[in-house]
C-alpha cells in the first residue's frame, strides 16, 4: 500500500513536471537564444548579431531568426506565427530597436539635433548626424538609471513616429548604398541582384523576400504565401512608381528594383512583428 | 466678503467663484445630525468628489528657474506701506531691507532695464482684499510709473480670472536642483537626484484611472526643456521630452525626404493592414499589438492633419500664426526658447489637443541674481510673467470645443513656480540676494478659488514660513506653538491641492494635505 501510494505520488509529480515543461520549455519557437546559432542558418539570413548594446532581447530576436532559419532550410514549412503560448509578447527596448536597425540596415537613424556637449560653453551643441534613437531613447521608454530603472515598453504615438521615421531613413540609406556598390555583406540583396525586376525576376525576388523576412522577423515565409505576395505588391509599387516631385521640391526618379527593396525594408521594419518577440 | 471655511477675507475679484456646498457647510450639517463621523465612513468623500468635472481637465506647469524674489512678485510687504515715515525708517534699520524700493541702488522708480520701467508700487487688483497683492515686478510701466498698456496678471485678476497665491512654502533646501525636483515630484531629492514622480504624471496617472478623464490627445504628457520623472507610473504617462520649439516637428511632421510616392504609401498601408498578418491574428487580445497598431494609425493621422503648422507660428505668415505672434508679442527674430514662444507653445499644445499635461521651463529667464539689484531681477523675471499673462489671456478668451464647456482656461489649471525664493536682504555690497527656502507659487484657472492667499511668511527680518493650520486653513501667529496638523506648507501639499482641485484622490502624496482654501472644490 505504501509502495502504491508512493508510486501514485511520483506519478502525480511527473505529470506536474511534464505540464510545467510544456508551459515553460515547450512551444517556444521564438525567444530561445540557443536556437539562434548562426551555424543553423543555411540561408545566412538569420544571423542577427548580438551585442551592440542590444542586450538580452536582441539575443532573443537573434535566436528567433536562427530558429526560423533552421526551419527554412530543413524544416517542415512556415513557422508558427503569433504569441508563443505561456509568455506575454514584449516590445523590444529602445536600445534593442536601435541595435536592430544598425545591424539590419547598416545605419543608425541620424538627424540634426541639439546634443549634450561638455566642450561647448552652453553644454549643448547642434549636430547634423545626431543618433536620434539614442538621443530620444527616453521617449521610447529607456530608463535613465538615475531615478528610473525599469524600461517602459509601451508603444504610443511618439514610439510609432520615431521608429517609422527610423525605418524610412535607415532603409533608404541601405538601399542607396547597395545600389552603388556590391557590399561584401549586403543587407537587402540577400538572394537577388539589383537588376532583378518583375515579372521576369519573380522567383529571385520572392526568394529574397523570404530571406529578408527571416532576417527581419525570424519568420520563414512560404514564397507563394499571402505575406510574401503582399510584400511583392509593395516591391512592385515602389519599383514601378513614376517619376515625381516630393513635398520638399526634390525630384525623384522613376522607380527601380532598388526602390522596391527600400520599400520592402520599410514594410518589414514597420510591421509589429519586427518590434515584438 | 468673508470666506466661510478659511476665515480669509476674499473679494469677488480674481475669480472668486466658490458656490454651493463647502467644507464648513458639510461639517455643520453633519454636526447637526450628529453623524459627522458616520457620514464620512459611509462614503461622503466619494459623493463629494463625484460632482467634480475632472474629465478633460488640462494642467500646465510653468517653471521660472533660478529662484525668484518673492518681495518683487508674490509676497510683497504691505504692512510697511501704512507705517509712518519714522516707523518705516526704524523697520528698515532693523531689517536692513527697503521693501518700498525707494532708496539707494535698489530703488525702482523710473529705472530702465530690459526694455521696461518698473515702479516702486505694489498692486492689489481692484476688488481684491488683503493680503492678496502682487509685487512691482508684475507690471511694467512707462517712465512716469503708469502701467504699460499690456496684459498683466493684475488686470487679469480684475477681469475675474481665478488666482490663488500660496505663500510660505518651505522648500527645505537651498540647492537649485534638489529644490526644483522637490517641487516637481513632491518628494525630497536625494542629493541632486530627484525621487518619485513628476506632478503632471501623477495627475495624469490618477486621471487615467477614471473613465473618460483623459482627453483624446496625441501624447498625454509633454515636457519642454524641463525634467520629468515617470517614477512608478505607467509608461503611457511618460513625458514626451522636447528641447525647444523646433523639436515639436519631430513628433508631428515627417521630413519630405522620408515620404514615398503616393502609390508606394498606399501599398505600405495595405501591407500594414493585411488581414493575415500576425497583428491581425493576435487581434485585440494582445495589448502590445493593439498599441503598435493604434500608435501607427494615430501617427498617420497626426502627420496628415498637419498639426505641425500650429507650431510654426514664429515664422509662418498665415493669419493664425500672425495672431499668435501678436498675442504673445513675438517677432520674426524671437528665440524658440523665449518666454513668449514657450507660452504660445503651451496654448497651442492645449488648443490643438497635442497634450493634456504641459510643462515648460522659461529657459531664458534665469533669475538667479546673486549680484543683481531689484531692477535687474525684475527685468529678468518680468518677461516670464508677461508671457504667463498672455497665456492666461489667450486661454480665457478661447472657447474650448465640446465636450468641454466654457473657455480653455475654465478647463485648465496652471501652476507657476520657481525652485525657491531669494532672501530679503541684499549682500554686503548692497546688491545681490542669495537663496532663501521660503517660496511661493501661483495657481490659476480651473478649480481655483480666486482672490485667496494661503500661507504666509514672517516679516522681512527673517521671512520664515508661517506655520499653517490645515484644519482651519489659516496661518498661526508667529509665537504660537504648532500642534497636530499644524506645520509649514510643503511642496507635496501643492501637489495634493492640484489633485484635489480635480476631485482626484490626493493620498498619492503621503502625509500631504490639500490647501482647500485655494480651491473651489469642497474637502473630501
Task: List the topology elements.
The complex is a heterodimer of chains A (277) and B (524).
Chain A: H1 2-24, H2 55-74, H3 94-105, E1 110-116, E2 124-131, H4 132-135, H5 157-180, H6 202-217, H7 226-239, E3 244-245, E4 251-252, H8 257-270, H9 272-275
Antiparallel strand pairs in A: 1-2, 3-4
Helix pairs in contact in A: 2-6, 3-5, 5-8, 6-7, 6-8, 7-8
Chain B: H1 23-33, H2 36-41, H3 44-50, E1 58-63, H4 85-95, E2 111-113, E3 116-118, H5 153-158, E4 163-170, H6 176-185, H7 199-208, E5 221-224, E6 240-242, H8 248-252, H9 262-272, H10 278-282, H11 287-304, H12 319-328, H13 339-351, E7 357-361, H14 374-396, E8 412-417, E9 421-422, E10 435-436, E11 438-445, E12 452-454, E13 468-469, E14 474-475, E15 486-487, H15 491-501
Parallel strand pairs in B: 1-7, 1-8, 4-12, 5-6, 5-7
Antiparallel strand pairs in B: 2-3, 4-11, 8-11, 9-10, 13-14, 13-15
What does the largest sheet of chain A look like?
2 strands, antiparallel
How many angstroms separate the termini of chain B? 24 Å
- Number of DSSP helical runs of chain B: 15
**Largest interface, per-chain counts?**
A-B, 60 and 54 residues
What's the CATH class label of the largest domain in chain B?
Answer: Alpha Beta
The poorly predicted ranges of chain B are 1-11, 18-53
Q: What is the CATH homologous superfamily assignment of the largest domain in chain B?
A: Alkaline Phosphatase, subunit A
Rg of chain A, Cα atoms, Å: 22 Å
Distance between the termini of chain A: 50 Å
Q: What is the H-and-E element order of chain B?
A: HHHEHEEHEHHEEHHHHHHEHEEEEEEEEH
- State which percent range the strand residues of chain B make up: 5-15%
Described by its quaternary structure, the protein is heterodimer
Helix content of chain A: 40-55%
- Quickly give the structural class of chain B: alpha/beta
Extract low-pLDDT stretches of chain A: 15-76
- The dominant shape of chain A is globular
- Number of E strands of chain B: 15
| Biggest sheet strand line-up of chain B | 6-5-7-1-8-11-4-12
* Radius of gyration of chain B, in angstroms, nearest whole number: 24 Å
Question: Proportion of β residues of chain A?
Answer: 5-15%
Amino acid at each position: 500500500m505504501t509502495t502504491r501510494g508512493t508510486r501514485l505520488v511520483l506519478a502525480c509529480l511527473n505529470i506536474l513536471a511534464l505540464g510545467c515543461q510544456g508551459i515553460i520549455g515547450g512551444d517556444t519557437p521564438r525567444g530561445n537564444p540557443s536556437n539562434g546559432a548562426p551555424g543553423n542558418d543555411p540561408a545566412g539570413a538569420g544571423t542577427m548579431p548580438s551585442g551592440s548594446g542590444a542586450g538580452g532581447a536582441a539575443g532573443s530576436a537573434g535566436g528567433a531568426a536562427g530558429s526560423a532559419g533552421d526551419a527554412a532550410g530543413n524544416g517542415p514549412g512556415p513557422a508558427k506565427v503569433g504569441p508563443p503560448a505561456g509568455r506575454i509578447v514584449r516590445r523590444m527596448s529602445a536600445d534593442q530597436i536601435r541595435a536592430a536597425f544598425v545591424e539590419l540596415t547598416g545605419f543608425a537613424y541620424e538627424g540634426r539635433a541639439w546634443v549634450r556637449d561638455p566642450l561647448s560653453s552652453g553644454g549643448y551643441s547642434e549636430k547634423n548626424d545626431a543618433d536620434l534613437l539614442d538621443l530620444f531613447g527616453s521617449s521610447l521608454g529607456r530608463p535613465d538609471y538615475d531615478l528610473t530603472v525599469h524600461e517602459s515598453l509601451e508603444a504610443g504615438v511618439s514610439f510609432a513616429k520615431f521608429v517609422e521615421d527610423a525605418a524610412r531613413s535607415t532603409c533608404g540609406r541601405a538601399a542607396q548604398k547597395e545600389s552603388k556598390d556590391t557590399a561584401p555583406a549586403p543587407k537587402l540583396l540577400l538572394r537577388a541582384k539589383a537588376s532583378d525586376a518583375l515579372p521576369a525576376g519573380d522567383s529571385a525576388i520572392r526568394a529574397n523576400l523570404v530571406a529578408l523576412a527571416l532576417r527581419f522577423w525570424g519568420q520563414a515565409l512560404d514564397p507563394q504565401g499571402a505575406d510574401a505576395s503582399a510584400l511583392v505588391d509593395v516591391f512592385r509599387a515602389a519599383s514601378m512608381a513614376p517619376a515625381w516631385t516630393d513635398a520638399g521640391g526634390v525630384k525623384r526618379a522613376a522607380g527601380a528594383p532598388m526602390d522596391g527593396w527600400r520599400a520592402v525594408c520599410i514594410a518589414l521594419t514597420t510591421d509589429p512583428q519586427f518590434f515584438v518577440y | 466678503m468673508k470666506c466661510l471655511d478659511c476665515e480669509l477675507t476674499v473679494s469677488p475679484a480674481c475669480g472668486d467663484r466658490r458656490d454651493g456646498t463647502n467644507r464648513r457647510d458639510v461639517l455643520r450639517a453633519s454636526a447637526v445630525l450628529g453623524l459627522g463621523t458616520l457620514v464620512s465612513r459611509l462614503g461622503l468623500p466619494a459623493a463629494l468628489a463625484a460632482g467634480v468635472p475632472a474629465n478633460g481637465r488640462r494642467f500646465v506647469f510653468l517653471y521660472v528657474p533660478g529662484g525668484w524674489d518673492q518681495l518683487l512678485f508674490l509676497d510683497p510687504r504691505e504692512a510697511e506701506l501704512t507705517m509712518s515715515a519714522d516707523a518705516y525708517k526704524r523697520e528698515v534699520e532693523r531689517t536692513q531691507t527697503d521693501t518700498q524700493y525707494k532708496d539707494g541702488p535698489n530703488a525702482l522708480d523710473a529705472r530702465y532695464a530690459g526694455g521696461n520701467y518698473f515702479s516702486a508700487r505694489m498692486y492689489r487688483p481692484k476688488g481684491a482684499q488683503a493680503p492678496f497683492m502682487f509685487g512691482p515686478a508684475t507690471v511694467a510701466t512707462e517712465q512716469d510709473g503708469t502701467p504699460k498698456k499690456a496684459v498683466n496678471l493684475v488686470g487679469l485678476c480684475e477681469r475675474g480670472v481665478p488666482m490663488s497665491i500660496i505663500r510660505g512654502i518651505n522648500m527645505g533646501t537651498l540647492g537649485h536642483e534638489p529644490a526644483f525636483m522637490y517641487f516637481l515630484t513632491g518628494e525630497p531629492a536625494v542629493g541632486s537626484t530627484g525621487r518619485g514622480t513628476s506632478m503632471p504624471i501623477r495627475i495624469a496617472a490618477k486621471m487615467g484611472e477614471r473613465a473618460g478623464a483623459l482627453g483624446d490627445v496625441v501624447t498625454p504628457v509633454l515636457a519642454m526643456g524641463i525634467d520629468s520623472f515617470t517614477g512608478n507610473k505607467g509608461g503611457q504617462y511618460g513625458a514626451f521630452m522636447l528641447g525647444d520649439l523646433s523639436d515639436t516637428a519631430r513628433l508631428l511632421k515627417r521630413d519630405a525626404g522620408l515620404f514615398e510616392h503616393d502609390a508606394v504609401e498606399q501599398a505600405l498601408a495595405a501591407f500594414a493592414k493585411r488581414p493575415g498578418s500576425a497583428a491581425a491574428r493576435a487581434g485585440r487580445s494582445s495589448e502590445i499589438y493593439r498599441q503598435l497598431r493604434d500608435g501607427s494609425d494615430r501617427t498617420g493621422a497626426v502627420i496628415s492633419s498637419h498639426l505641425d503648422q500650429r507650431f510654426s507660428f514664429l515664422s509662418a505668415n498665415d493669419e493664425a500664426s500672425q495672431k499668435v505672434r501678436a498675442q504673445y508679442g513675438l517677432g520674426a527674430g524671437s528665440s524658440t526658447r523665449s518666454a513668449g514662444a514657450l507660452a504660445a507653445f503651451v496654448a497651442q499644445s492645449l488648443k490643438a489637443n497635442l497634450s493634456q499635461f504641459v510643462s515648460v521651463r522659461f529657459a531664458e529667464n534665469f533669475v538667479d541674481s546673486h549680484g543683481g539689484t531689484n531692477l535687474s531681477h525684475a527685468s529678468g523675471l518680468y518677461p516670464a510673467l508677461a508671457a504667463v499673462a498672455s497665456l492666461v489671456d489667450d486661454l480665457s478668451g478661447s472657447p474650448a470645443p465640446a465636450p468641454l464647456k466654457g473657455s480653455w482656461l475654465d478647463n485648465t489649471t496652471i501652476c507657476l513656480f520657481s525652485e525657491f525664493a531669494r532672501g530679503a536682504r541684499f549682500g554686503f555690497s548692497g546688491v545681490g540676494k542669495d537663496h532663501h527656502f521660503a517660496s511661493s507659487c501661483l495657481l490659476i484657472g480651473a478649480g481655483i478659488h480666486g482672490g485667496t492667499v494661503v500661507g504666509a511668511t514672517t516679516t522681512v527680518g527673517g521671512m520664515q514660513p508661517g506655520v499653517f493650520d490645515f484644519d482651519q486653513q489659516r496661518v498661526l501667529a508667529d509665537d504660537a506653538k504648532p500642534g497636530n496638523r499644524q506645520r509649514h506648507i510643503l511642496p507635496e501639499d501643492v501637489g495634493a491641492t492640484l489633485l484635489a482641485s480635480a476631485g482626484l484622490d490626493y493620498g498619492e502624496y503621503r502625509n500631504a494635505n490639500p490647501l482647500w482654501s485655494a480651491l473651489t472644490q469642497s474637502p473630501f
